[in-house]
Specification:
Structural class: alpha+beta
Oligomer: single chain
CATH class of the largest domain: Alpha Beta
Radius of gyration: 21 Å
Number of domains: 3
CATH topology of the largest domain: Nucleoside Triphosphate Pyrophosphohydrolase
CATH superfamily of the largest domain: Nucleoside Triphosphate Pyrophosphohydrolase
Number of helices: 6
Strand content: 25-35%
């Protein structure tokens, strides 16, 4: 059986930003750092301003003389505090993380990924899950407090597994969701349910989505995925290519077993954005799915 590991750290896991958790409640330090802090403005489409050198930051003092409610302290980048804030509109050249992920350096990748995850959480956490009262941000954006009871809530992250199913040899199972255009395939994924281990989730999700029983579930790596606020936990598992494929839960429109050579050819053609008429198109570079597929495709040449 072919064993493989991730060849590289997933792009969105490359953060080079010091989170500086110890400063989140240090009002004096945050006020002092605000004077020359960087501010990342993010619109409701997840877009930011970009320039030739990556993300375009504003001066935090443009919001006011001290840290503002609604802004989130992300940490320290190149010795300067970094904050993010949601805005209604932006001008200039705009792009989102899906477009930018493969071009950003480690510092900018960490800033934008963290900003999106935190701002997306705040957008959906305006009321306390415990008592239903309005909640307000505190701890420089890293928690919210109920205005009724003072109950504190912290950022929610939804864990999801993503798994490459192979036959132990030179075939891999790829699938397409109903909303995806024809020829666009990826590996299988699903959210972890309450009271469920990650490995159990892998087995359940693959069985539910394509009807295949898998074994030898093996962890590969993980990646933040702030769409809206998830973490993707990557695995590989072995399945029987002769087992019938069934799509019982409606989440998969099509699934097929592809050979390693077919996958290698598809990788050479680019990704989903390619204008080729090739029969197989694979995810882009910011997805851990791409890294897992690339690692599996290259494993046989090393064995």
């Amino acid at each position: 059986m072919t064993e493989f590991r991730l060849n590289d750290t997933p792009l969105l896991s490359r953060s080079a930003v010091g989170r500086a958790e110890e400063l989140r409640s240090d009002t004096d330090a945050l006020r002092a750092g605000w004077r020359d802090a960087l501010l990342l403005r993010v619109n409701h489409r997840g877009q930011v301003r970009v320039g030739d050198d990556g993300l375009v930051f504003a001066e935090a003092t443009e919001l006011g003389p001290e840290p503002q409610r609604g802004a989130v302290f992300l940490g320290i980048r190149k010795d300067r505090h970094v904050w993010a804030v949601r805005v209604q509109a932006l001008t200039g050249e705009l792009a989102d993380l899906r477009m930018l992920g493969g071009t950003l350096d480690d510092a900018d990748a960490g800033v934008l990924t963290g900003a999106l995850a935190m701002l997306n959480w705040h957008d959906s956490a305006g009321f306390s899950a415990l008592d239903g009262a309005p909640s307000e941000p505190t701890t420089s954006g890293w928690s919210r407090i109920s205005t009724s009871t003072g109950h504190e809530e912290f950022p929610r992250t939804d864990p999801a597994v993503i798994c490459l199913v192979h036959d132990g040899g030179d075939r891999v199972l790829l699938a397409r969701q109903p909303t995806w255009p024809a020829r666009r395939f990826s590996i299988l994924a699903g959210f972890v349910e309450a009271g469920e281990s990650l490995e159990t989730c892998v087995v359940r999700e693959i069985k539910e989505e394509v009807g295949v029983d898998v074994r030898d579930v093996r962890y590969l790596g993980s990646q933040p995925w702030p769409f809206p606020r998830s973490v993707m936990i990557g695995f590989a598992a072995v399945g029987d290519p002769d087992a019938p494929l069934t799509f019982a839960d409606g989440e998969i429109a099509e699934a097929r077993w592809f050979t390693r050579d077919e996958v290698r050819t598809a990788l050479e053609l680019g990704d989903w954005a390619s204008d080729t008429d090739a029969p197989l198109l694979l995810p882009g570079s910011i997805s851990i799915a791409r890294g897992i597929i690339e690692s599996w495709a290259g494993a046989a040449t090393e064995s």
